[in-house]
Structure formats: structure tokens, C-alpha cells
Amino acid sequence: MRSFFVSLALLLFVSVCANAKQLEGRVFKNGIATEVYMKVPTGLFKGKPQFEPMQFRIKAKGKGDEKWIRLDPREVDRLEFEYNGETYSMVSLYGKKGAEMLVGRRKKMFVRELVGGELSLYTYHYSTKTFSDDSFETDYEKYILYKRGQELMVPRALNFRKEVSRYISDKPHLSERVMN
Questions:
Q1: SS (HEC) of the chain
Q2: How far apart are CA 43 and CA 84, in angstroms?
Q3: What whole-number distance in Å separates Cα of residue 165 and Cα of residue 148?
Q4: How far is CA 53 from CA 72, 90, 119, 124, 172, in A?
């Protein structure tokens, strides 16, 4: 009887914590936008989207469709959605030079785009378990820079300013601002 209550409590806890909202958004493939509904995982206590589970696939369906499909970064170039008045954008790294240094053999993933354009800034989200009993997770972000036609660059924390400045050295005004 006790195991029944423990199982029931665990089921309730998981259903509350594994919260996903159905949001309107856009999916881009070869520059063509399609209006869709997306299932965006949100934390119950954080009040913002959880990007880590969305990095490898996302569930979506067209506006008139009944069936949800899974989209991965090979099938979509970019996706956008709005949550609590803020617009979020995620970009596929599939086919970009340097993606393997970030994700190993998995060369397909979405990353959150913070700044777009000729020089783009992305973040990769991951979590690690802390304490010996593996009961607590800590969320982290890695920054990724991308210049069109060049390899992705993931600056290390130790030499962050120096590496970023070297990567954007063809833009002296930006490079100087990073160093100062």
C-alpha cells in the first residue's frame, strides 16, 4: 500500500514538473516560414522556456493538422516562438563547420540565438548533476560565436576576451570593445 502512495506522489510530481505549453510559432526551412503550434517545455518554477530538451528535437503541428510530429535540426533551419511577451529564436547547427566540437558525434542540434546577423551569438544549454546523490542539477550555458561562412567558435572561459577578440579581429571596433 505504501508503494502505491509513493508511486502516485511520484507520478504527480513528474506531471507537474514536466510542464509543456502549446505555443504559436514559426518554423523556417530554406527561408520559407510555416506557422505552427509547438510544444515548448517550461519549468514550473522558472517561468521561462527550458531550452535543453528542445535542442535535439521539438514537437510541432501545422495550424490545421491534428497530428504532432517531431522535428529535428536536419529538417528545420530555424524556429521562433513567443513566450510571456518575449520572442525566442533557435537555430539549427546542422551542416555548420565546427558543430562537432560542441556536440561530438551528434552534429545536429538547435541552439538559442541571442544576436543574429553577420556575426551571431548563440547559447548551448546543458545541466550537470552536483552532489554525490545526483539529486540536484545545475543549469549552464555555453556561448557560441558564428561568422557567416566560417567555423563556429566556442570561447573557453579562461581566455574568453582574448579568443573572442581574435575571432572578430576583422571588426576592429568590436574587437577593441571586447578587450576593454
A1: CHHHHHHHHHHHHHHHHCEEEEEEEEEEECCEEEEEEEEEEECCCCCCECCHHHHCCEEEEECCCCCCEEECCCCCCEEEEEECCEEEEEEECCCCCCHHHHHCCCCCCEEEEEECCCEEEEEEEEEEECCCCCCCEEEEEEEEEEECCCCCECCCCCCHHHHHHHHCCCCHHHHHHHHC
A2: 13
A3: 17
A4: 12, 12, 26, 11, 37
Q: What is the pLDDT of residues 89-120, one digit of tens each?
A: 999 988 787 776 666 656 688 899 999 888 88
Q: How many CB atoms lie within 10 A of CB 72?
A: 14
CB 20 within 8 A of CB 42: yes
Sheet holding 78-83, edge to edge: 69-71, 58-62, 32-42, 19-29, 78-83, 86-92, 110-115, 119-129, 137-147
List C-alpha distances in Å: 116 to 42, 90, 146, 148, 170: 24, 10, 9, 11, 18
Q: How far apart are CA 70 and CA 38, in angstroms?
A: 10
- pTM as predicted: 0.75
